[in-house]
Amino acid sequence: MINLAKQTSGVKNVYTYLKTKQDRYECSSFNILANLKQNLFSDSIIKGTNVRVSVVGCDVVFSGVISKIEQEKHAIWYAKHIDGVQEVYSFLKILN
């Protein structure tokens, strides 16, 4: 699947995040997602609808398009300060 994406006309980069599923996680992905979404939508710098958020196990994964590096910094800060979050990955693209 990754090779197919790389060979597709117009594709410049392919970023992957794959993780082996565990039987049990030490966090609530629902609570992490709800808390993070609330913070993103109430932040005056981040356009909450432009940032996609996934919670995989206890990791937060961001994707989407933003206009300023400050938006990414705020999103990452919020994620790192939520109880239960282990790792934060950002695949946000900054448009110039």
Care to give the gist of this entry?
By secondary structure, the chain is α+β, with helices and mostly antiparallel strands.
How does this model look, in words?
- The chain is 33% helix and 22% strand.
- Strands 1-2-3 form a three-stranded mixed sheet.
- 14% of the residues are buried.
- It has a single domain (25-94), classed as Histidine-containing Protein, Chain: A (2-Layer Sandwich), CATH 3.30.1340.30.
- The protein contains three helices and three strands, in the order ααββαβ.
- It has 96 residues and is of the alpha+beta class.
- Helix 2 runs antiparallel to helix 3.
- It has helices at residues 2-7, 29-42, 69-80; strands spanning 51-56, 59-66, 88-94.
Strand order of the largest sheet: 1-2-3
N-to-C SSE series?
HHEEHE
Helix coverage percent: 25-40%
CATH class descriptor name: Alpha Beta
**Could you give the distance between the termini?**
30 Å
If you average the pLDDT, what whole number results?
89
How much strand? 15-25%
CATH topology descriptor: Histidine-containing Protein, Chain: A
The biggest sheet amounts to:
3 strands, mixed
The total count of strands amounts to 3
In one word, what is the shape?
Answer: flat
Assign the structural class, choosing from mainly alpha, mainly beta, alpha/beta, alpha+beta, or little secondary structure: alpha+beta
Radius of gyration, rounded? 15 Å
Give the uncertain stretches in residue-range form: none
Number of domains: 1
Number of helices: 3
* Shape-level CATH architecture: 2-Layer Sandwich
